[in-house]
Automatic annotation (TrEMBL):
The chain crosses the membrane at residues 12-34, 40-59, 114-136, 156-176. Gene3D superfamilies: Histidine kinase-like ATPase, C-terminal domain. InterPro entries: HATPase_C_sf, HATPase_dom, Put_sensor_dom, Sensor_HK_TwoCompSys, Sig_transdc_His_kin_sub3_dim/P. The keyword Membrane applies. The keyword Transport does not apply. The lineage of its organism: Bacteria, Bacillati, Actinomycetota, Actinomycetes, Kitasatosporales. Its EC number is 2.7.13.3. Keywords: ATP-binding, Kinase, Membrane, Nucleotide-binding, Phosphoprotein, Transferase, Transmembrane, Transmembrane helix, Two-component regulatory system. GO terms for cellular component: membrane. This is histidine kinase. GO terms for molecular function: ATP binding; phosphorelay sensor kinase activity; protein dimerization activity. It is an enzyme of class 2 (transferase). It catalyses: ATP + protein L-histidine = ADP + protein N-phospho-L-histidine. It holds the Pfam family HATPase_c.
Length: 407
């Protein structure tokens, strides 16, 4: 029953896109074909290049219209491409437009959208009307020719064929809607190179902001913590010097107390510095992930099972990213999941490294849900990594980070 309901469930936007999209498909397909035909004819004249430049700018506008239509009716959000740069001079601007991959891909989309638009209109409008005519064929025949029918089996076959075809309408619409979504994602969004540049810019901005925050926090901790401890140690040493200088001779009891105090302040300062430097570069990583991760999991309040398959050692920057990613994920498990056990596995082979953290908690984790996963995904993107989260309500939660072994 659930499969049948899913098969029959067609969103209103899909019907509207199939019905309303035909005129736009005809206009867009005709525009693209006319541009290609006229551009080829005018390519040997002085009007050829200006015509193609204007036509490509128009294609960008049609692409924006189709992008909004796909977003509103099909629920498929297609990222808007970057705006064209505006260099100085008509020749330079024309060269930018002629080499714009977004405009050429939009022309290809308009050409391919034409047959899909015709098929969609046929599935949403023409096919249901034809099915209604077939199902009502016995009635139409009796109204047009009263009296006994010479071929009564034809009426039954017509009604049966109409019902069969009508049952295929939802599946056809869903298939065509899926094809339109994939086509829009492929051709109406930014080019892969542009999208990659945008992702790297976003990741770089996030990484710079995070590093700035870390530096400010480190400066504050050094000023308010370590510096204060060193000042206290200097004062204690000054008191030791005073205790050695009196005319009656050194006060051994006071000296013993002051030396103990100085030793304790030194130990506290060393521990403070060790804590601060651990956030910059964990000392455990000097021996690689095989030594660092078991030590990290040993401090987790939730029992962790560690599985490592490190056939090759990643680069230092990647090791550091994997280490802090594992630390962040284990912290999230302890704070938010309510899990009783965690499994952490790391595999490094064939130039890729994969970190998987699985817990048996309550689930419901998602990127952007306030558990730090969004920031973690941005930091991984800075090293060309990808974060995937699978956390249905009730659990289990599986978070996978995959990134290249070397940058």
């Amino acid at each position: 029953m659930a499969e049948r309901r899913r098969y029959l469930s067609v969103r209103g936007g899909e019907w509207a896109f199939a019905a309303v999209g035909l005129p736009l498909a005809l206009v867009g397909g005709g525009y693209a074909l006319a541009v290609l035909y006229a551009g080829a004819l005018l390519s040997l004249t002085v009007l050829g290049l200006p015509f193609v430049v204007a036509a490509l700018l128009g294609a960008r506008g049609l692409g924006a219209l189709h992008r909004r239509l796909v977003g509103r009716l099909l629920g498929e959000r297609v990222e808007e491409p970057a705006a064209l740069p505006r260099p100085v001079g008509a020749v330079a601007r024309g060269r930018v437009v002629l080499t714009d991959p977004v405009a050429w891909r939009t022309l290809l989309y308009l050409v391919l959208r034409l047959p899909l638009g015709v098929l969609g209109f046929a599935a949403a409008v023409a096919l249901p009307l034809g099915c209604g005519w077939l199902i009502g064929f016995p009635l139409w025949g009796r109204l047009l020719e009263p009296g006994p029918r010479p071929n009564p089996w034809l009426d039954s076959a017509s009604a049966l064929l109409g019902l069969v075809l009508l049952s295929a309408v939802p599946g056809a619409l869903r298939a065509l809607s899926g094809a339109n979504r994939r086509l829009a994602r492929l051709l109406l969004g930014p080019a892969r190179a542009q999208q990659r540049v945008r992702e790297l810019e976003t990741a770089r901005a996030a990484l710079l902001a995070e590093n700035t925050d870390q530096l400010r926090r480190l400066e504050r901790d050094l000023h308010d913590g370590t510096q204060a401890r060193l000042v206290a140690l200097a004062i204690t040493l000054s008191l030791v010097e005073d205790a050695l200088a009196p005319a009656a001779g050194p006060d051994l009891g006071r000296l013993h107390t002051l030396v103990d105090r100085a030793r304790g302040q030194t130990d506290d300062t060393i521990a403070e510095l060790r804590r601060l430097t651990r956030g910059i570069h964990p000392v455990a990583l000097d021996g690689g992930l095989a030594e660092a991760l078991p030590g990290l999991t040993a401090t987790s309040p939730v029992p962790v099972t560690v599985r490592l398959d490190l056939r090759e050692r990643p680069g230092p920057g990647v090791e550091r990213a994997v280490y802090f990613c594992a630390a962040e994920l284990l912290t999230n498990v302890a704070k938010h999941s309510g899990a009783g056990s965690v499994e952490l596995s790391v595999t490094a082979a064939d130039g890729r490294i994969r970190l998987l953290v699985r817990d048996d908690g309550r689930g419901g984790a998602a990127l952007g849900a306030g558990t730090g996963l969004t920031g973690l995904a941005e930091r991984l993107a800075a090293v060309d990594g990808v974060l995937r989260v699978d956390s249905p309500p009730g659990g289990p939660t599986v978070v996978t980070a995959e990134l290249p072994a070397r940058l």
